[in-house]
Specification:
The structure holds two protein chains of two kinds.
Chain A (H helix, E strand, L loop, with lengths): L1 H7 L5 H32 L1 E6 L2 E3 L7 E2 L4 E2 L6 E3 L1 H17 L1 E8 L5 H10 L3 E5 L6 H15 L3 E5 L10 H9 L2 E12 L2 E8 L2 E8 L2 E5 L14 H9 L2 E4 L30 H11 L4
Parallel strand pairs in A: 1-6, 1-8, 6-7, 7-13, 8-12, 9-12
Antiparallel strand pairs in A: 2-5, 3-4, 9-10, 10-11
Helix pairs in contact in A: 4-7, 5-6
Chain B lengths: L19 H28 L7 H6 L18 H14 L1 H21 L2 H12 L5 E4 L15 E4 L3 E12 L6 E7 L5 E7 L5 E2 L14 E12 L3 E2 L6 H35 L1 E2 L2 E2 L4 H29 L5 H25 L11 H11 L6 H13 L6
Parallel strand pairs in B: 1-4
Antiparallel strand pairs in B: 2-3, 3-7, 4-5, 5-8, 6-7, 9-10
Classes of the chains: A alpha/beta, B alpha+beta.
Chain lengths: 294, 392
């Protein structure tokens, strides 16, 4: 600025140029203030979404157990975002981009789950919360997540209807109950307008359309978005994820209600018996007397 | 083509050596290849056409200059991330990886390392985003393994340089917007010049009828009295060491890329061997097939360790040209042998476009030749350990 003033003093009086400089700075300050105000108002009205994420083995993993078949063997296993949660996260990103929302992700797990959380941040979540404990049962996880929801003042909580590892299917329901929030399970479509959500559920032979007020807990699945809508983190997202907060909070005291006694793998498939298409009698005989299926 | 069921082998749990960000970057590239490359690549290879629609995706996964600083549009990642991205892309196709290697190591790298600040700001962000594509002109019809003998030259005309000559076997040339060209000045010293499409006298005819890298565009660069502005000279390094520095970076990427091609062949052969029943049992149960598969995973694992250690040395700025030569030579040779063995496991099916193996095998015939032939790399190691260069 000083250099510019010096350059033009040949054309204008110095006082005149100084007054222009004052107006220029005043404008900058005002713009900054209004910008701040707008951001604050926007923040206040923006829907706050929490997506609950479970860190699960990739579907192609080889499943083994250790410690007398009481623990899952994580050796060599790759972990991913639970697919049902990923549909929810992608829908949350859609809300963020189309109508404005702050999207946070939360999980219960030790430091080993952080790569999965970082991926969620790279996909576009704004902030991540890791509750620093190893998850035990559904009730325990729901208690931990409910505490995050309570403290964070979320309008919408999206969790997968079940994780694909233990398939408990309990967390979103228990969480809603603990929080006294509305709950829609097995949700395959979700729209939010103002304080009202319209949710679609798959039911036997058709679909059910529901309306519920926020705050709301969703047990989501495929249909919230389709598989082709799922996002691959791009480099820009990965770079931004480096700078986003991954907050670690300590768990609350919440006893588990169940504990694992033993895991068993399905019995190995036996040899196949081929029955001639014309020999229905033999087929019925085998099914009745050998397989005892009929 | 069959659905892409690829599962990456990691026999020595190398993932444990990678950082959280390495895995994130690698998995994103892996997912992208599965989604955007695997379904289309066979068709484009058969048509001998480069799938231009993937350029945006390559840029999005960071395949263009991932190690270039963020200030210039790069991702500021380390060398292991770059290697992992190359591995995943070449798992899809060596031709697509070639496009990314050229853009990163042979175009963006010399502009970043040898260019002025103005050149960096002008070219690098557009090359990183894929808005501009680049190519690299070193090899000539009469000078392959001996690039120092190049005939392409330029003359100082006062307000510009006048460039004359021809380059051959140039990946990306038919569609490149920018070419980093190596030519001798009047004193016979090699310098890099940035030549832009549209400059009068500059043409890029395509090379047809390749049996290899068919999904990648290859061509010539012809300079017939091309007036190159003086500000397009790369000022910060000259001599043969300048283009060879770029090749170090590209060869390093290839040493990782070849692992990707080998993994794909191995994974395909393993799956096929477990499913294919002959003489009443899966062919995977026969000793001769097990020998092939067991040797494949052993060689892949060794190649992974070689590339990973080289990546560490690159990150520390300690990797030598000879070390890079060893990894490029070993890993490409390893991949080509695995492609041939894997093809045998699949029998006649290995010959069809239903499977990726034969495409990889044909691609690798180029990869083992370009960026320093298999023989030349051996002589680089030989010269390094004995002190007697045998190629001069």
């Amino acid at each position: 600025m000083q250099a510019k003033i010096a350059k033009y003093t040949g054309y204008f009086s110095l006082d005149f140029l100084k007054s222009i400089k004052k107006i220029y700075y005043a404008c900058i300050i005002n713009l900054g203030f209004y910008g701040y105000l707008c951001r604050e108002i926007f923040k206040h009205n923006t829907m706050k979404i929490l997506v609950c994420i479970s860190n699960v083995p990739d579907t192609t993993s080889k499943i083994n157990f250790t410690e007398g078949d009481t623990k899952f063997d994580t050796n060599g296993v790759q972990f991913v975002i639970n697919p049902n949660d990923e549909f929810g996260l992608t829908r949350a990103m859609w809300f963020k981009e189309k109508q404005g929302a702050a999207v946070h992700v939360a999980t219960v797990g030790d430091a080993s789950v952080e790569p999965t959380m970082r991926k969620a941040l790279a996909i576009g979540a704004d902030e991540a919360i890791r509750i620093n404990t190893v998850p035990t049962d559904g009730f325990f996880v729901a208690r931990q997540l409910a505490e995050v929801v309570k403290n964070g003042g979320y309008d919408l909580v999206i969790a997968g209807r079940e994780s694909i590892d233990y398939n408990g299917g309990m967390v979103p329901g228990i969480m809603a109950s603990l929080l006294g929030m509305n709950f829609v399970n097995t949700c395959i479509g979700l729209e939010v307008e103002g304080n009202k959500a319209t949710a679609l559920r798959e039911i036997d032979g058709g679909k059910e359309k529901l309306e519920a007020n926020l705050p709301l807990v969703i047990g989501g699945q495929k249909g919230l978005v389709e598989e082709s809508d799922l996002r691959i983190p791009n480099m820009r997202g990965i770079m931004m994820a480096r700078k986003k907060a991954l907050n670690v909070v300590e768990p609350i005291d919440a006893p588990s209600q169940t504990n694992d006694q033993k895991f068993e793998k399905p019995a190995a498939k036996g040899p196949v018996k081929l029955v001639d298409a014309d020999n229905v009698g033999e087929l019925v005989n085998l099914l009745h007397n050998e397989a005892k299926a009929i | 083509m069959k659905p892409d069921l690829f599962e990456a082998p990691d026999y020595y749990q190398l993932d444990d050596l990678l950082s959280e960000e390495h895995i994130l970057v690698r998995d994103a590239a892996r997912q992208w290849v599965k989604r955007d490359i695997s379904p289309i690549i066979e068709d484009y290879a058969q048509k001998a056409e480069f799938p231009k629609q993937i350029i945006n995706g390559l840029a999005e996964i960071g395949a263009f200059g991932p190690y270039i600083p963020e200030t210039y549009g790069g991702a500021g990642l380390d060398q292991i991330s770059y290697g992992l991205i190359m591995q995943e892309i070449e798992r899809g196709d060596s031709g697509v990886r070639s496009t990314a290697s050229v853009q990163s190591s042979l175009v963006m790298y010399p502009i970043f390392a040898y260019g002025t600040e103005e050149q960096r700001k002008k070219y690098l962000p557009k090359l990183a985003s894929g808005e501009w594509m680049g190519c690299f002109g070193l090899t000539e019809p009469n000078h392959g393994s001996n690039p120092g003998g190049m005939e392409t030259k330029y003359k100082d005309m006062g307000d510009h340089y006048l460039l004359n000559g021809a380059k051959l076997w140039i990946s990306n040339s038919p569609f490149a917007d920018v070419a980093v060209v190596w030519a001798k000045n009047e004193e016979g010293r090699i310098h890099g010049l940035i030549v832009e499409r549209g400059m009068e006298g500059f043409s890029t005819p395509e090379t047809h009828n390749k049996w290899s890298l068919r999904a990648s565009a290859t061509g010539e660069l012809i300079f017939d009295d091309v007036k190159v502005p003086k500000e397009n000279l790369l000022p910060n390094k000259s001599g043969l060491g300048a283009p060879l520095g770029c090749l170090d970076s590209a060869r390093y990427g290839i040493s990782w890329g070849a692992i990707g091609a080998a993994m794909d062949c191995y994974d395909t052969a393993l799956r096929y061997a477990k499913e294919r029943i002959q003489f009443g049992k899966p062919i995977a149960a026969f000793q001769l097939q097990q020998k092939k598969l067991a040797e494949m995973i052993t060689e892949i694992t060794k190649a992974q360790l070689l590339a990973f250690r080289l990546g560490q040395l690159k990150n520390e700025g300690k990797a030598t040209t000879a070390q890079i030569s060893m990894a490029k030579r070993n890993n490409v040779d390893m991949a080509l042998k695995i492609a041939r063995e894997a093809r045998q496991v699949l029998g006649g099916m290995g010959i069809t476009g239903e499977y990726s193996i034969m495409r990889h095998m044909m691609n690798l015939e180029s990869v083992i030749t370009y960026e320093g032939t298999h023989d030349i790399h051996l002589l680089i190691t030989g010269a390094d350990i004995t002190g007697h260069p045998a190629f001069k």
